[in-house]
Here is the input.
Amino acid sequence: MSRRRLSGAGLGLALAFFVTLGMTDGSLGAAWPSLRDEFDRSLSQLGLLLATGSIGYLVASSGFGAIHKRLETHGAIVLGGAAMAVGLAGIAVAPSWLVIVIAAVLLGAGGGLVDTGINAHASLEFDVGSTNLLHSAFGLGAAIGPILIAASLTAGQTWRGGYAIIAMTQLVVLIFVLRSRPRLASQDAASAETGTSALSNPRTQTLTLVMFLLYTGSEVAVGQWSFTLLTEARGLSVGAAGAWVAAYWGGLTLGRAVFAGVGPRIAPTRIIKVSITTATVGVAMLWLDAGGLGFVGLPIAGLGFAAIFPTMVSLTPHRIGRDRSPAMMGYQLAAANLGAATVPWAVGLVAESAGLTTLSPALLVSVLLLGLLHLALERKT
Here is the structure.
């Protein structure tokens, strides 16, 4: 995997796009209370809005291979960026709930194309350090999004002002990307010149997809269920629980920034192995709750999870083959999106039937399964 570490405009544009992706994902939760009041929606209809966006994302990312054949990477990213800009603007000016839902589908589809296109580009053009930096930019954007919404509300404006700013930011990034074709199209020529990897076979592909599903599901499940575990099962205050869950996500973002610097000096498979081990230790600490300090395991788990997804992205051409990498990236991100929905749901079913104390062991099982999948993939590749 002789990829270079990019420090110029190509990496800068990719980072900017990932910041806007994070801003988009992070803003809805902050905007929802005001948005639902304006359109007289029930609290639970946030789930409907998230589901419609996920459907758009799944369709677009799963179909990325076909779109890539027609438009190549640069064209697919531009199309996705334009769809995101229109979706964000549509939400900002929506006169009705129906327009919000339609815009959410468009926003999800655009995000699926941008996410898949940039990850496919990164897997072929960036080294593992740059790919980790790319994903830390998403975390930065996810932190900025709620701040923009809150600032808009505090300034006496509505949630629409925050979405308008994000839409304009997306449009500015898109304009720069439109001018960057040589820097975002190099992978297409490279992949066309390189034959399919002999390592690419149905078993490898299946294991890879399941690993993306289980990793993302485990990461999201720990983040979603830890607050409930700490407050309802262990009696921690709302403020303290919120701080420790924030420390989990902070560890995830910080870890990716750290691996952006040290990642190129470590073999990717070793990064994943060490990361899964660290995440397992963190989740085990959360479960055992020794001395009532199980919450300390959350930032450790976050640090452990940090480098896994970016490094798996970086390994895609090696495991699947350069020519198949763009199409496979779409399936991988679709699997990740599916995992983010199904694994937390499955953990919740376990907790509902067996009690909240089963949350942490259920989370630990998912992380252990992730480790077994990695070992199986190592034997294949």
Observations:
- Residues 10 and 183 are 5 Å apart (CA to CA).
